[in-house]
Amino acid sequence: MHPVLNALHYKLIVSCQAAPDDPMEDTETLRRVARSAVMGGASGLRLNSPEHVRAVRLDTSLPIIAIQKSYEGGQLRITPDFVAAKALANAGATIIALDCTDRLHPYGEPWRDIVRRIHEELGLLVMADIATLREGVLAAEGGADIVAPTLHGYTDETKGTFGFHPELVSALARETGKPVIAEGNVSTPALARIALEAGAWCVVVGSAITRPGSITATFVEAIRSLDPSSTSSHRHVIGIDIGGTSIKSAVVGVDGTVQLQHDTPTTAAQGRESIATALTAALQHTLAAAETNNIPLHGVGIASAGAIDSKNGTVFAATDNLPGWAGFDIRQYLRTITDLPVFVENDAHAAALAELRFGAGRGFSNLIALTIGTGIGGGVIVDGHLLRGSHGFAGTIGHQTIRFDGKPCNCGRRGCLEAYVSTAALIEEYRLLDPTLSTDQPEPALAFEIARRSIAGDRNAVQAYRQLAAYLAEGVANLSNLFDPEIIVLSGGLIEGQSTFLSDVQQNAQSLLHFGSKRPPRLIPAAAGRYAGVQGAAASVFDQITT
Predict the structure, then answer these.
(1) How does DSSP assign 460-508, residue by residue?
(2) Which residues are CB-contacts of 52 (< 8 A; sequence separation ≥ 6)?
(3) What pLDDT, on the 0 to 100 scale, is given for residue 159?
(4) Per-residue model confidence (pLDDT) at position 547
(5) pLDDT band per the 50, 70, 90 thresholds, residue 165
(6) This model's pTM is above 0.90
(7) Cα 14 from Cα 459, distance rounded (Å)
(8) What is the pLDDT of residues 198-208, one digit of tens each?
(9) Whole-angstrom Cα distance, residue 296 to residue 546?
């Protein structure tokens, strides 16, 4: 066994890094953090960039695992090429760590080439940062000296599996025949011990030791609800709405006032890292704007597509509109950027909160909000409280069945309401009446054209909307039976300007309801507007920091 590895066996390595734009991201500051960690008994360090390695090497001869983070093309990659590895070696690195996952990286060099050259030209050990057992085995076969599940939970294949997983450590130790360094979400001393008992050679701990902002935020969030000043009528928070095209952000007052609005392109098609980068940019821009305008902030609210575990601030599940987003720990990620408490909601839930607090739902305690577009989003308010469900799926209104064994739905079932009321459904209904409708345009453009024709009085377009109203009425009748709401609020570009659509839905639903004449459903248009998601995300913060 290599002498360096012998020196690290059953020992603690401390990762001394800071997030971009964190006040801790300073060479001299991190140098002092490293010195403090060594004084506390660390047997090794993990550092980012030659500059930091060179500075810390002046103070210690302990092993240094060195990396170079690259954000080229908006994607994070660890030590993307041999040039980066050589710079780290020249600065005093003992071990070079690099990304050895299967992810496609359009920038940099193949990891196997980097491993070979590090061995042949630099004579240093290589640590493979991987996400899965298979990747660990391949990395070991490809020449890596050490394997670490650092990236478990951060790749498409492992999405939804955040947290420390001792079983993966055990499997890596058993199958690779290489020393396994437990790194990633080892957040307590107890987990460090569990990691070693599971077969880890040694343990890397980072944020739980070296990031005071993240550590502070856990305490602040725990006690914030007891702070009497948090009920001040002058409170402001940041609201952020993550969409597939753009991320809207703004400062929102307790009365719903929106100011300092900003839109950031999402570039969602590039995957999770690109979305996270855009989210970072949106938050940092709005934080800076609030500071410039001397607006004190009390929290950050995030509205995101997907099923959201609001208790933990994670994305439980997501569709292809946000590729790779499922499993992402939004709250933990943003703790590297701000010390403010972060609350996360599903975007349709946020829209319901916006209507309840600031829009058409003000003065009501029981309501349902529906957003109609490419699908149907929904939020249910009962006795003034949003229903989230145990996994964030409450209010998934578009996937109630209205036709047994009916049209296929993108959820995998058949006969869902969303298969009959959506952009695609409107186009399908219109084409049954007018097969000459162009097929050259994308769905949103075609739906807009049908909507325009309906407003202009085109008979086929009007009939297509009437058919959608009949289908939606069946869903509304079901909702009325389940929840007996005071009002149902409808929004979405698909129905804007359709003067008879709401009344058609209401009349049809009333005819379907038992005792419908005594409890006719009341449908009203949404009032929150373009920044409903931002306002709803903010409302979630206000609700939770005052209770």
Answers:
(1) HHHHHHHHHHHHHHHHHHHHHHHH--SEEEEE-TTTTT-TTHHHHHHHH
(2) 16, 27, 30, 31
(3) 63
(4) 42
(5) confident
(6) no
(7) 70
(8) 899 999 999 88
(9) 17
Q: Give pLDDT, residue 218.
A: 65
For residues 46 and 44, what is the distance between their CA atoms, to the nearest angstrom? 7
pLDDT in tens, 465-489: 999 999 999 999 999 999 989 899 9
H or E stretch at 48: strand 44-48
Chain CA centroid to CA 154, Å? 11
Q: What is the pLDDT of residues 198-249, one digit of tens each?
A: 899 999 999 889 888 777 766 765 565 455 554 445 689 999 998 877 899 9
Range name among 161-165, 266-270, 489-493 with the lowest pLDDT average: 161-165
Task: Please check whether residue 201 is in contact with residue 7, taking contact to mean a CB–CB distance below 8 angstroms.
Answer: no
Q: Is residue 268 within 8 Å of 322, Cβ to Cβ? A: yes
Q: Is the dihedral of CA 533, 234, 262, 18 positive or negative?
A: negative
The Cα–Cα gap between 210 and 47 comes to 12
The average pLDDT across 445-464 equals: 89
| DSSP-derived 3-state class of residue 218 | helix
* Residues 77 and 277: beta-carbon distance below 8 Å: no
Q: Write out pLDDT tens, residues 529-541.
A: 778 899 999 999 9
> pLDDT (tens digit, 9 = 90+) per residue, 277-311?
889 999 999 999 998 888 889 899 999 888 888 88
- Are 321 and 494 in contact by the 8 Å Cβ rule? The answer is no
The reply to whether 364-527 shares the fold of 230-353 is yes
Counting other chains too, the contacts that 501-509 makes at CB distance below 8 Å and 24 or more residues apart are: 501/465, 501/468, 501/469, 504/465, 504/466, 504/469, 504/470, 504/473, 505/469, 505/472, 505/473, 505/476, 506/473, 506/476, 507/473, 508/469, 508/470, 508/473, 508/474, 509/473, 509/474, 509/476, 509/477, 509/480
Residue boundaries of the structural domains of the chain: 3-210, 230-353, 364-527
When pLDDT is averaged across residues 386-399 and rounded to a whole number, the result is 85
Domain 230-353 fold is Nucleotidyltransferase; domain 5 (3.30.420)
Of the candidate CATH numbers 3.30.420.40, 3.40.50.450, 3.40.50.40, 3.90.1150.10, the domain formed by 364-527 belongs to 3.30.420.40
- What is the CATH architecture of 3-210? Alpha-Beta Barrel (3.20)
Asked if residues 484 and 363 have their Cβ atoms less than 8 Å apart, the reply is no
Q: How much is the average pLDDT of 353-371? A: 88
Q: In Å, what is the CA distance from 232 to each residue of 15, 17, 149, 255?
A: 39, 36, 45, 12
Which of the 8 DSSP states describes residue 514?
Answer: T
List, in order, residues 6 or more apart from 157 with CB less than 8 Å away: 102, 131, 132
458: left (phi over 0), alpha (psi -120 to 50) or beta: beta
- Per the model's pLDDT, the better-predicted residue between 104 and 94 turns out to be 94
Cα(245)–Cα(444) distance, rounded to whole angstroms? 13
Residue type, 108: G
Instruction: Identify the H or E element spanning 181.
Output: strand 181-183
CA distance 36 to 16: 10
Please name the residue ranges forming H helices in 325-417.
330-334, 347-358
Within a 10 A sphere around the Cβ of 543, how many other Cβ atoms?
Answer: 18
